[in-house]
Amino acid sequence: MIQRAEEMKEIVDTVLYEKIAELGAIKRSYLEESFKDKLKMEASVDELKNKMETALIMPSTFLTFHQHLFSSQTLEVMQESITNHPTLPTFIKGTEDKTEIKKQFGIINWPEKELVISQYKEAINLSPRLLPVSKEQEGDGRLMKSLCDIQVARSVKLDLKKERKINIGTPMNHLSLLSSNKFWGSDVSGNLILYDTEGNILKKISTNVVDVIGYHTVTSEGHLLFTTAKSKAIC
Length: 235
Fold this sequence. Notes:
It contains six helices and six strands. It is of the alpha+beta class. The strands form two sheets. The protein has a four-stranded antiparallel β-sheet with strand order 1-2-3-4, with no helix packed on it. It has a two-stranded antiparallel sheet with strand order 5-6. Strand 3 (191-196) and strand 4 form a beta hairpin. Helix 1 packs antiparallel against helix 3 (72-83).
């Protein structure tokens, strides 16, 4: 799933680069049009300068110059160059459809689900005594199913052949499994102690949490997380 997320991020980056390239093409087009307008304006100015110099030298041509200066064609070129300013593009943000994104991301497929359910049913048939249900409750299918799920989950996951006792010498309030042969335990004195399966102490952390159950856990990466008394922080 992390790999799929990275792939979708790459798709977003690709779209971003395409939009930037599109913006660059628009910019080049605007610059080309502006350059053409500039050349047209410069040509008109040069033409007017030449005619003006001629009119100054030969007063008889001044009327012709005046008519050319205020002709519709000359004014049109000048007016177009002055008013022809490009409109800058704007970015309009799209909408996020979480449902559609989830479809594109993918789904979690559990092909073994039906097999697990069948194993639970088989365990129920083999162990009817695991379900302490009264006669008044036998007719309630939902209650029966709920009790079955709880009792069977306990019975299936418990292998009494592998049960063993580890003498750690002190009462424990809560345990957090670190690996198959190491676990953290919290005692009644506010200590977090790392044990191996032989009961040896590998590490000890003193906290100010006394007689509190379940204030620590271990992440899938093996990091220990715990809280402290009257604190809003997680260590």
